[in-house]
Amino acid sequence: MISDAAFWTLTALLGIGTFLIRFSFLGFLGRRQLPDWVLLHLRYVGVGVLPAMVTPLVLWPAATGGETDPARLVAALATFVAALRVSVTMALVAGMGTLYLMQFLLS
Amino acid sequence: MSRAAFWQGFRDCSPFIAVVVPFSMLFGVVARDAGLDLLQVMAMSVLVIAGASQFTALALLQEHAPVFVALLAALAVNLRMALYSAALVPHLGHAPLWQRALMAYLMVDQAYAVANKTFEERPEMSRADKVAYYFGVMVLICPFWYGCTFLGALIGTAIPPELSLDFAAPVCFIALTAPLLRSLAHVVAAGVSVICAVLFAAFPAGLGLIAAAIVAMLVGAQVELFLNRRRERLA
């Protein structure tokens, strides 16, 4: 059981902290011109962050207690191929569809 | 604000509803399982709107970690958004302060990835159009995030774990990443990001992610510079 005091302290501070992280550069730099070397690196924020978010979720899913799950590996690959070749919508369909199919086949 | 740009953002983000729905419902279910009441579940989703950090914080509180430990871990998971915030400065930094504050509140992975991709592909977009586009992207996600958290909290354990709703998160991030791989430098950076995520897996929650992202950004930038120099030599 989570105590009310612990929950509300955490939620209030996490809300404020998360807002400040999001507001940071956009809020305080505003219309200031960023130097070229900064802009160069910022072009790689998306490809730097998102794959590193995905990797542990696919390799060591919490739902299996951290055990690598072949069904999820195949489904992740199917998502990636569909996203590259077809469309975002098809990637989402292919991802969950392949997972269900693999779970059915492997069970 | 330009209406056309607003609705373009709305349309470009609409496929991601398909993952926001299961992921936010899952948070509702997990939070109720952890013993939170409806008001608490909704307060967290509305005040924080950052799914990954909400799951992290809840899991740590359930394990009776001290509040400040849960807080630091959850904030570390959200540190990546400082990078999003910086990356959006050249496109949205001109907006008035109250708009930038609203943009900051709404800055989720989907908003950053969809908006930034469009801004880079269409440098001719006017500043007003970029602002309208960004809000178009988020106006769709946000109500679904609140609404489906609520639905998940109501339905609760009636959602069977066999549905593997947790997998909606990686599926979403993969679908956001693939369209970003538009040059060799981007592909190399993404590869480095994956390798570093494995190498840094033992780091505390969130910090491995930031370290991997920074290494990948440095490598991506160097590859771009290298390719540009080589092109100049060959030309």
Automatic annotation (TrEMBL), chain A:
<keyword id="KW-0812">Transmembrane</keyword>
<dbReference type="Pfam" id="PF05437">
    <property type="entry name" value="AzlD"/>
</dbReference>
<feature type="transmembrane region" description="Helical">
    <location>
        <begin position="42"/>
        <end position="63"/>
    </location>
</feature>
<feature type="transmembrane region" description="Helical">
    <location>
        <begin position="6"/>
        <end position="30"/>
    </location>
</feature>
<protein>
    <recommendedName>
        <fullName>Transmembrane protein</fullName>
    </recommendedName>
</protein>
<keyword id="KW-0472">Membrane</keyword>
<keyword id="KW-1133">Transmembrane helix</keyword>
<feature type="transmembrane region" description="Helical">
    <location>
        <begin position="75"/>
        <end position="101"/>
    </location>
</feature>
<dbReference type="InterPro" id="IPR008407">
    <property type="entry name" value="Brnchd-chn_aa_trnsp_AzlD"/>
</dbReference>
UniProtKB/TrEMBL annotation, chain B:
<feature type="transmembrane region" description="Helical">
    <location>
        <begin position="12"/>
        <end position="32"/>
    </location>
</feature>
<feature type="transmembrane region" description="Helical">
    <location>
        <begin position="38"/>
        <end position="61"/>
    </location>
</feature>
<dbReference type="GO" id="GO:1903785">
    <property type="term" value="P:L-valine transmembrane transport"/>
</dbReference>
<feature type="transmembrane region" description="Helical">
    <location>
        <begin position="209"/>
        <end position="227"/>
    </location>
</feature>
<feature type="transmembrane region" description="Helical">
    <location>
        <begin position="131"/>
        <end position="157"/>
    </location>
</feature>
<feature type="transmembrane region" description="Helical">
    <location>
        <begin position="163"/>
        <end position="180"/>
    </location>
</feature>
<keyword id="KW-0472">Membrane</keyword>
<dbReference type="GO" id="GO:0005886">
    <property type="term" value="C:plasma membrane"/>
</dbReference>
<protein>
    <submittedName>
        <fullName>AzlC family protein</fullName>
    </submittedName>
</protein>
<keyword id="KW-1133">Transmembrane helix</keyword>
<comment type="similarity">
    <text>Belongs to the AzlC family.</text>
</comment>
<feature type="transmembrane region" description="Helical">
    <location>
        <begin position="68"/>
        <end position="89"/>
    </location>
</feature>
<dbReference type="Pfam" id="PF03591">
    <property type="entry name" value="AzlC"/>
</dbReference>
<dbReference type="InterPro" id="IPR011606">
    <property type="entry name" value="Brnchd-chn_aa_trnsp_permease"/>
</dbReference>
<keyword id="KW-0813">Transport</keyword>
<keyword id="KW-0812">Transmembrane</keyword>
<keyword id="KW-1003">Cell membrane</keyword>
